Amino acid sequence: MNKISDIKSKSVILKLSLICFSFLFLQIKLTAQSGEEIFNTNCTACHFATADRLVGPGLLGVTEKRAQEWFVKWVKDSQKMVAEGDKDAVALFEEYQIPMQSFEGVLTDAEIIAVYDYLANPEAKPTSEATDEVAAASSTDDALITQGQKVFKANCSACHSIGANKVVGPGLQGINDKRSEEWLLKWIKNSPELIASGDADANAIFNEYNKMPMPPQAVSDEEIRAVLAYIKTPPGQKEVAAEKTDAQGTDVPKDDNSTVMLILLVVVIVFAAILLVLLNKSRVSIAKAVAEKTGDTYNGPITLAEACKHLISNNKGIVAVIVIILFFAGLVDLMDGAMQIGVHQGYKPEQPIKFSHQIHAGLDKIDCNYCHSSARHSKTSGIPSLNVCMNCHLYIKGEGKTFTYNGEEYPMAEEIQKIYTYLDFDPNTGKYGDNQTPVKWIKVHNLPDHAFFSHQQHVTVGKQQCQTCHGPVQEMDVVEQFSPLTMGWCIQCHKETSVATQGNGYYDDLHSRMPEEFKNKIMQDGKITVNEIGGMECAKCHY
Amino acid sequence: MANSKKYWKGLEQLNNDPKFLASSRNEFPEELPVDQFLGDKETLENSSTSRRDFLKYLGFGVAAASLAACESPVTKAIPYINKPEEITPGKANYYASTYYDGNDFAPILVKTREGRPIHVIGNKESKLTKGAINSRIAASVLSLYDNNRLKNPLKNGKATDWKTVDAEITKAIAEGKNIKLLTSSLFSDSTKQAFSKVAGEKVYDIQGNFKGVKIDTNFVEYDEISYSGMLDANETTFNKRAIPTYNFEKAKTIISVGADFMGNWLDTTMYLNDYAQTRKPDNDWMSKHFQFEANMSLSGTNADVRVPVKPSEYGVIVANIYKQLGGSVDAPAANANLESKIAAAVKALKDAKGSSIVICGSNNKNIQLIVNGINQLLGNYGNTINIINHSNTKAGNDTKVNALVEEMSKGEVDVLFVYGVDPARSIGDKFISALSKVKTSVSFATKENETSKLCTYVCPDNHALESWNDYNPVDGYFTLQQPTISPLFNTRQAQESCLKWSSDYKNISYYDFIKETWKNIIFPDNEIYTLDLNFNEHWNKALHDGEICFEIPHAEVLERTTSFVNVTGISSIKIDGAGVDGDFELELTQNASVGAGAGADNPWLQETPDPITKVTWDNYVTMHPSEMKERGYNTQLGQESPANLISVTVNGKTIDSIPVVAQPGQAKGTIGIALGYGKVVGNMAEPTGKNAYPLVENKDGVVSYYVGATIVDVAGTYPIAATQTHQTVMGRDSVVRETTLATYKKGNKEAYNPEHKLATHENGQTVKKNIKEFDLWKAHPVENIGHRWGMSIDMNACIGCSTCITSCNSENNVPVVGKDEVRRGREMHWMRIDRYYSTDADIEDKSIAGYRKMEDPADNPQVVHQPMMCQHCNHAGCETVCPVAATTHSNEGLNMMAYNRCIGTRYCANNCAYKVRRFNWFNYMAYDKFTEINPSQDDLGRMVLNPDVVVRARGVMEKCSMCVQRIQAGKLDAKKAGTKVQDGAIQTACSASCPTNAITFGDLNDTTSKINGDMNHNRAYRVIEEVGQQPNVYYLTKVRNEPQENIS
Prior knowledge:
The structure holds 2 protein chains of 2 kinds.
Chain A: H1 7-30, H2 35-42, H3 62-65, H4 68-76, H5 78-84, H6 87-96, H7 109-120, H8 128-137, H9 141-156, H10 175-178, H11 181-189, H12 191-196, H13 200-208, H14 221-232, H15 236-249, H16 257-294, H17 304-314, H18 316-339, H19 357-363, H20 368-371, H21 386-393, E1 402-405, E2 408-411, H22 412-423, E3 425-426, E4 431-432, E5 441-442, H23 455-461, H24 466-470, H25 487-496, H26 505-513, H27 516-522, H28 538-541
Antiparallel strand pairs in A: 1-2, 3-4
Helix pairs in contact in A: 2-7, 4-5, 4-7, 5-6, 9-14, 21-22
Chain B: E1 6-8, H1 11-14, H2 18-24, H3 34-38, H4 41-46, H5 51-70, E2 76-77, E3 92-100, E4 105-113, E5 116-122, H6 135-144, E6 154-155, E7 158-159, H7 162-175, E8 179-183, H8 189-199, E9 201-204, E10 210-214, E11 219-221, H9 228-238, E12 243-246, E13 253-257, H10 268-277, E14 288-293, H11 298-302, E15 305-308, H12 314-324, H13 336-351, E16 356-360, H14 365-377, E17 385-391, H15 398-409, E18 415-419, H16 423-426, H17 429-435, E19 440-443, H18 450-454, E20 457-458, E21 469-474, E22 477-481, H19 494-501, H20 510-525, H21 535-545, E23 547-549, H22 554-564, E24 584-590, H23 603-607, E25 615-616, E26 621-623, H24 625-630, E27 643-650, E28 653-662, E29 670-675, E30 697-699, E31 702-704, E32 706-718, E33 721-722, E34 738-740, H25 741-746, H26 749-752, E35 757-762, E36 765-770, E37 789-794, H27 803-812, H28 818-823, E38 832-839, H29 848-855, E39 862-868, H30 877-881, E40 887-889, E41 895-897, H31 907-911, E42 918-919, H32 939-942, E43 957-958, H33 964-977, H34 989-993, E44 999-1003, H35 1010-1015, E45 1020-1021, ...
Parallel strand pairs in B: 8-11, 8-18, 13-14, 13-16, 14-15, 18-19, 19-20, 24-29, 26-28, 34-47, 37-46
Antiparallel strand pairs in B: 1-38, 3-4, 4-5, 6-7, 6-20, 9-10, 12-17, 21-22, 22-23, 24-32, 25-33, 26-29, 27-28, 27-32, 30-31, 35-36, 37-44, 38-39, 40-41, 42-43, 45-46
Helix pairs in contact in B: 6-27, 8-19, 8-20, 9-14, 12-13, 12-14, 15-17
């Protein structure tokens, strides 16, 4: 069964991830990087600086084709441009069908321009700063490996892994033993030339990979040597472990305030109880002493319970008032409780794949509509089918990476592997098997059958943000029901929200027929709310 | 008042039967079914459960239920693994396809949701039918999800696999010398080609080498409803064994002798829309329609002049018309009454030479020859009747069928394939005994039928919605059928099976085969390649449109047709006007919803009331009421007055215990029985109705539906499930408005559609004021503000076919309630078609003839069909009485129903002036009483439900919502496109399916819309407008084109 997790722990994780996120953000902001470096860290997952296509188009000559201004706009939010109907943008989108992720907030204008300048002349020597860095790094082995890792990630990882598994090209484990360094240098810098020269090994590989040439890489011999060193001795487990301790180091203390307060409260209560018993004892002994002095015998209450009884019997009025107050308070509480029946705000079931919206929608800034594409043109927002996942995860395998899900750390590759298992996909051969099974996700937002809700009405026509109802999904690693989804909640919004009539011919037509007095009546408060055009009528949602 | 006619719904009302009067005051004629919930009194008294225990259980029940409600079930959401490009969950796709079941044909549009077909309407773009369908086609989507379909191939009645079947049949074909195919009319080139691969006649050269196969020489085409006599006559006249196409659009005079061309005669879907175009009184001319017939048919109810005659008189009428037009024929004299009607008909024909149509429903070759002669004398060929672009839908040949049965009984047939027909049922014993002599018999039935039970192998065919096919219903016009769902069961299309069994086409799919046929035969034959397009472009366009039409210039048609027709030898025909043996002349007919039998096992169709008798779930004998009284039969309908049972014997064959129903307008001395019944519906134990096919006579090698019958009373009675007597209009006189064309053309609106005036007292004087000036309710602004959805129904175009009812059931998930519940008046249909009979009984005709007519108004009543559904009153009576505000008014003019709010007081139904609200008595989706008949009780049957409409729970009121789900969807589309809602873009299920476009839906506030024009039309009125409820449904006064002089 599903566990509905505690809402509080979620908020802690939220805060935590926010902090982590802002750190990342700051780091990016603080370090000034050259265009090439920015390109390598942000763009190479999908683009080559050459004319070859990877996920997106090769960027050779992009500066001649597009203006700088256009380029900046595109990189920041390509979808917006497509939506605005920019001709080039639309053409590009139609050609590739995959929207480019938005870099708004990730890269500044200046950084994008740096990338643009770099792309204008990618063959140019790296800036002196960078060369210095390389030179300095290569002074020691460790530094060489680190540099190799960097170069590998920037240039090679799109197609190769350092293990034995095949990505686009072959896995590179043991490449140092198989081929001479000289051969490798030639191959990496210009493989077609090597093939053309009739080299037997080169031709063998070329044929093995269905004559798909490896694009010539614009790297120096130094860098290739660094990469080779890295492949030979990858940082491996040590580093992952280090990263883990790092992550724990930055973790905020686990025990939160509420537990402390709880303990404090218990202590206070126990203390008060003890005090009460002691006080009662001294009261009784004082009373006894007073009675002795006056010669009477003390026959008042002795134990604490007797004292309470005595107190109650002497103050019946107050007790009655308290009872009445308690009764009504209980009634109100019961009613509140009853109103919550069937309301699953905060419902947060565990899904078959630990899919983190925080990573996809938050960090990667993938537009919600990219996966939930039918939200724009259907009643349902649609749960993406696995082929949508594969658009990216054909390349992104998350090896060696971890992520946080419901407060715990999980290896990324394992979850991505689940997609492959469902699809019966072999990442090494890149082939799909026949034993494909669908993912049985657990539905988080359940509207009753008799309520008709249309996403397209709200998203496309009403121009509502997904977050209005679904909350800050981009911050949730486990998605939960943010809004109560009760009828009262719907109606509240329909009462307040003004209709997006601007520039919509449908509303213009309706308004043009409307008599003035009626128009004035509606426009008294300066806006047309959904309610005013019949958005609260039964048959708008129930039929 | 618009006219002084008296309207009555049933004989009970006409005769002011006291029982009827009492029951008509009850909205719900039945007592509450308390016993069914609590058990009878005895069990209740014997029960040990005390009141105290009951309360305990109740308390526990409530607590348990509320506790269970707190734990909500986990709902799974399972996306596609690989989403097909064209499917978006939540959005419907439409595919153009074709429906053909051996009897009905129509180009259709199939609505699918997430890959499930859920609704079928006519293809409005079709050049042939203009979107006309009938209720059988609309309901065909339900039979796709029939759990009783054959799910595996059968060998000797036992399930087996395709491999075994394929191997054995291939062997039988190879060994068999005489291979025959008995099929429904085949007008699909690809099907013929595919079948010829196994059943074609093998041709050898002199040396004995195999040369190939001849197409269709071994095919025996067989129509269960035979038109063989007509085809034979046409072969003589046109030298072509074909049915012509009739262009009703140009027909100013239509004479039909016993042919129900709106219900069941030939290609009704091709005629309906055209016919309706000629019935518009605002056009330059309006057609005149004469109908001579024995049974009251759908066409008869719409005729301007209907003459009840015996079937034996059909020949007399036809011969007399021919004679009076100047033809030479030996015509027996007609009786005096008939004589005058014939004269009127002939006059009308002479007035419209070259633009008239004369048709006859007889299957007698001689009679049809005379009809051809008449049409030739009138110069109709080439004008209204086209024999060049003839219809191919009926090609059955009774002589050939008889020859085949003969051949079979001699044991000469080695392999027999049966496709699309059920001859064991329709031919009967003769066929059954002959079939036993056939070595290997193969049936392609989709559902077990009487023939398939007797066949060696059953290779179940796919349902039409799972199949590829092409059709050539009319020369020069082709349609395509495409699957809208993968086969649900282990079935295979018959054509595909044949390809599998052939030697050369084993590995070719039928889809590729069709494409090959089109590429190599159809396109080259029709010279399509002269256009500069390649095959794929043509193919894709045809597939998208569902049809492709190669038209031939009209002038050429005329010229070629006239030279074609050769009517000789009529003068030698001897028409026998004498009646037949027996007590009555029986005309075997077909019901509008069940047809020849295709709809007999479909619960939606069984529950659709017959358009005229309003009887559901049964066939019956129709008889004239006065003759029933003579014989002492009960002439009333309903649970409380059950029908008498009789047995009908024809030529020694008897159907036993069939109820008799009174049919005003039935020709005296005749009775009628509908064919097609007697099949098992759903999981019912007993078949529904009686199979009347054994009564069909085989006269001179041709099937005849007019026979002499002897009837005998049978003990016992049978309660008929009829809907008509329920929900009367309480004698209000503003329900139906009707006038004659002459009155209408005079242009005085007061004469035919007067406004309602109410007398009021003002300043000491009586003033008559328009009804619009009175109002009980506070003004609710409706004009010019937002939308105001409304409907108009042209009573001149409505023919009462009931397609809208079936379509509404399909769209709105209306439950099937079964025979027993209909008897109690608990049918759930959201719309009904009220059928009113009218007479001139209280007309101010003081002549003797006028008085005589008053004696028996049921002799030949006129009929009005009036679709009735929620009128969406702006000042609705139902809304003000609802104690929980479950039914309220929207600012778009809709009367809304919130089921979750409804507590089932039924006040609204009591206060509704139109009696259109339905109370949901049972949990039809689960209650075991409905398991047998309600298709939604199994998982498969539920797949037909429309996901956009909620399935109502027990205890709520429901009614027509004017397809609010479609309105909302249409508005949303307009908002997304940023334009106004285009007129006609939103259609309700009924308006979309109406074959004659009688129903118009739209925005009354949109001044450019068609409905706005209808609202302000001179003929427009609202039903019971005088009570001031201001409905949003407008009816257009019916105008009859009655002859000027009194011809009766």
